[in-house]
Structures are given as C-alpha cells and as structure tokens.
Amino acid sequence: MSLRPYLPILAVAVLLAGVVSIENSNAFANGMVTAMIAALAGYGWNLLGGYGGQYSFGHAAFFGAGAYVDAILQMRYGVNAYVAFALGASAAGLVGLVVGYLAFRAGLRGSYFALITLAFAESMRVVANAASITGGAAGTLIKLDPAPANFQFQSRLPFLWIAIALVAFAMMLTRAIERRRFGAYLIAVRENEAAARALGVDALRVKLQATVISAALTGLAGALYAQYFLFVDASIAFGPGISIEALAGPIIGGLGTVFGPLVGALALHALGELARSIAGRLPGVDLALYGALLILAVAVARDGLQGLAIDVARKWRVRTA
Amino acid sequence: MIAPLLALENLVKRFGGLAAVDGVSLALPGGGIIGLIGPNGAGKTTLFSLIAGSETPNDGRVLFDGEDITRLPPNARAARGVGRTFQITQPFAGLSVRENIAVGAYLRHPRRDDARARAVQVAERVGLGGRLDAPASDLTVSGRKRLEVARALATEPKLLLLDEVLAGLNPSEVRDFAPVVRAIAAEGVTVLMIEHVMQAVMSLCAHLYVLAQGRLIAEGSPLEVTGDPRVIEAYLGKGAARRLETEAAHG
Asked: What are the pLDDT digits (tens) for B67-82?
C-alpha cells in the first residue's frame, strides 16, 4: 500500500494541530472542538450521502446513539471512558444497520429514504426524552473528573488534538474507501443502481455496509460530543439540528470528496461565529445562515466550496496563461 | 448429456394484462453469435431482462449452465457469467471511461490495480483505448455503446447479452463495430444480440430467433428465417418481402 494518497491528509491534520496549539484562547479552542465534532459527523454523512448518493435527513439518530451510549455506559455501568467511547460508536453502527436494513430492504430511496431516516431520529428523540435510562428530559450528565484515564482533561488542548486526530482518521478512512472496490461499487450505485447490479454489484449489501460505517463515524462524533460537554439530552443528541449540520458541511464543502466535510464544517462555523458577532445573540441566526448557504451551494456550486475553488483556480490559470 | 449454456423453459412475463413474453422456450448450446430479432414491442428487451434478472418471470424457468437461476438477483447472475448491455445506455456519467469499466472488472479482480489494468485491456478491445480518462458523459452515441459493451465484457461473462448496440450508429460505425463483436465471440463468449440493423445481423449471426408478440415464431439460419413467410408477415412486412425477393432475383 502506498502512503502517497494519504500525505495531503496528514499535512492538513498537522497544520490544524499546529494552529490550535498556537492560538489557544478558550473561545477559539471551544469553537474548533465544535467544528471538529461537526466535521466528524459530516464525514459519516458524506460516506453514505456523498459517495453512496443516499441522502439521510436523520443522522442525528446515529449521533445521539453514540452520545447516549457513551454517557450511559460510564454513568450507570461504570465502564471505562475509552471503552464507552468505542462502544458508543459501535452502537451507532448497529443502529445504522437496523435503519439501513429496514429502509433499503423496502426499496426506499431519494426523498423516501430521507424521510424514513428523519422519522427514526425523531422517534429516538421522543423515546430518549421519556425513557428513564436516558435520564428523561433532564438528560444524562457525565461526572466531572478530569484525568487522562477518564478521557477528560484540565486544558482543552489535548482534547482538541484528539478531535483533530479523529477527523484525520475519518479522512483517511474516506480516502481508503475511495481506493477500494467497495468505494467503486458505492459510487457505481450512486450513479446508476440498475447498471451497477448488472455488473455484479450487490447494491443492497453495499448500501448497508456504507450505512453502518457512516453511522459509526457519526456516532463517534456523538460520543466525542458527550465526552467534551459531559452532558447529553434528547434535543441535543437526536434533534434535527445535528442532522442538518451533518449534511450541510459536506454539501457546502464538497460532496463525495475527502476534504469537503472538513472545509464545509470550518466554513460554516466561521460564518456562524461571524453572524453571531454581527447580529448579536439573536437565536437561530446561524441556522438561517446555514439554510441560505445550502441553497446557494445547491444552486451555484454543485461541487461545494472545494469545487468552486478548483473552478476559480482553473479560470484564473487560463486567464493568466 | 452436457447441459446447454442457457435454457429458457416456457417463460411468461405479464405487465398488467399484457403478456410481453408469452411462453418462450429455447436452448443455447453455447458458442457463437446468436441473433434475437423481431418487430418493436415483440418482447425482446423483456426477454433479456428475464435472462439477466432485472425482471422475474410470472411463470417458467431460466437455467444457466444447468442451474436454475430464475429467482437470482442480477448481481448473482453476473457473478455466474451473464453479462448484459442496456438498450438505453446507462453510463456512470460522473465517472471516467476507465472507472466505468473498472466497476465491471472488479467482479473478477477485487484489487484496484488489477481491476484498473483489466479495464485498460478491455477498453482497447472495444476501441476506447484512447479515451480512458474522458468523462463517460462526454462520449458520443457510438462511444457510449462501446462503453456498455466494455463494462459488460469486463465482468468476463460466459453469455453476453447485447441489446441493440448497433442501433443509432452510422453505417461506417457499424462496420467498425462488427469486428469487435466477432472478436468477443471468437474468444469463447456466447453472444446473444438483439438487433434491428439487418445487414449486421445477416453478416454476424449464425443462428436467429424471431420473437413476435411475446412468442418465438421462427428460428434458424438468417437465410432460413428471412425466407420464412411467418417472419415476413410479422417482422419485415409485405413491402419488404417483395423488396427482398427482387433483391434475391437480381443478386
């Protein structure tokens, strides 16, 4: 296996780690952690949506499963934080398997798939808000006990590094999938499912595998969220906000690309901060901005910011040549 | 007794009240180029879909290499060696020619490097060797037809179903393409082709099946079939029959 296709990813990760190590004001670090969590959720969504063409509106179902399982295992069963973290992501993968099986077995695609995923996320939100194991409407707190053994740190920096490392892992996983038969099959299913099946692609299996990996990655983001904020409740974990963030990042950054979700998440968070600083603490102003940007991305930049940058660079080169 | 490569037993496919395929039985021993002709709406493409698995029959069986594949999905049939092209070309539009063909090649070559190398070989066989990195959406009609064949061929089929790969090509393109089909068959792939371009059918196919209104009405060598009054009735029409007669008289 050649390392070359992975070098740009390493370079970006090192750059990010360097930037956060130099500029580590609390507000900046906080913003970066949130952006990295969103990017990670976006990488999950991008695998299924960007590469597989199956647009989920309910990735919160996986984010929430990761977050809740991470928190509940630690608080109710005394499981080690890192084990709980890994199990959180696995649980999300399992939820992905169930949702994917039900949706794809029934032959749902397009807006029907989007709706069924949204319905799953919403019903999980309602259940989490009422069940006792999740702490009901009060949510679940993870006990504050800063020690590296508990996946809790005195300063934000180590946590930020871990978040960046996980995003780098997601990018490498994406690249690795791109370069394997599985990735080629996934893209073939997105482009034309009937043609893919005629060429021997087991479309159901490919979509299911993609859903499981996608859900596990987004679940990882959820578990990371729980571990950072040490608190989960139903509307945070399973709310539509996180589903939108998971899809907005990749669409704005560049669908079905290795860097798109990161570019999108960073751009969205920077703009969100900017909007908040201009409009003050007007609630929902960042969400309105996301909406406007999504429409713009779909209307004028189908390949997202990354595609736009490549286009501009190409035009500029032509003009100067 | 060796089982035929493909055997259809009394296949029936109904869409609502219409029987698109109405009790078709045939057996291909394997090898050669076999033509499937018939007027529009005869059920030719539906028959292909029943063989390739994108449709399941209401009745009857499909046997491939002696095994019943009637209920298998298309991908499982491709794995057993049934390759097909689509009449309306279905390229993976966002992918390059090489990537398109590699999807087919991955079936027998799971490693990326092998599949991509195989894709290059196959592209050269169908005359797309110079367009490997072109986006599939940039291809001309003739290029898309070649891509359809290349992708199916990359799965290394035993039986290749070609659905009107010559339709829409100009006469010189047809002349260029015929040797490609012949070369495929020469390598041991059994080719079953639906075709309207009669000149090509006559020169390529050793054996023809004629389908009309969902039923097989005739089979035999091109000469036998075109002389068959039922075929002339159903497929060529009376005017064409007269023209053929005069041509025969002058030839």
From this structure: 999 999 999 999 999 9
Query: pLDDT of A156-166, one tens digit each?
Result: 899 999 999 99
Contacts of A1 in chain B (CB under 8 A): none
Model confidence at B235, pLDDT cuts 50, 70, 90, reads low
Name the H helices within A5-59: 7-22, 26-46
Contact by Cβ (8 Å): B114, B162:
no
Contact B151 A200 (CB under 8 A): no
Which of B73, B115, B152 has its CB closest to that of A181?
A: B115
User: Amino acid letter at B135?
Assistant: P
d(CA A19, CA A32): 10
- Locate the chain B residue with the closest alpha carbon to A202: B75
Interface of A with B (CB under 8 A): 179-181, 184-185, 187-188, 191-192, 194-203
To the nearest whole Å, the CA of A51 is away from the closest chain B CA by 11
A191 to chain B: nearest residue by CA?
B92
Distance between CA atoms of residues A234 and A247, nearest Å: 20
Chain A residues with CB inside 8 Å of B93's CB?
191-192
Q: What's the pLDDT tens digit per position in A236-293? A: 999 999 999 999 999 999 999 999 999 999 998 888 888 777 777 677 777 777 778 7
For B188-195, what is the mean pLDDT?
Answer: 96
The domain segmentation of chain B, as residue ranges, is: 6-250
Q: What tokens appear for A72 in the block?
A: 């509940």
| Closest chain B residue to A184, measured at CA | B103
Q: Is residue B250 over pLDDT 90?
A: no
CB contacts of A194 in chain B (<8 Å) are 54, 74, 86, 90
Q: Cβ contacts (< 8 Å) between A192 and chain B: which residues?
A: 90-93
Under 8 Å CB-to-CB from B4, ≥6 apart: which residues? Answer: B27, B28, B29, B30, B63
Helix/strand/coil for B22: strand
- B153 or A154, higher pLDDT: B153
Tell the burial category of A315 from Cβ atoms under 10 Å away from its Cβ (0-12, 13-18, 19+).
Answer: exposed
Cβ-nearest to B106 among A184, A191, A198: A184
For domain B6-250, say whether CATH 3.40.50.10860 is its number. Answer: no
pLDDT tens, residue by residue, A114-137: 999 999 999 999 999 999 999 988
Q: How far is B103 from chain A (nearest CA, A)?
A: 6
Residues of chain A with Cβ-Cβ distance to B154 below 8 Å are: 199
Distance CA A124, CA A117 (A): 11
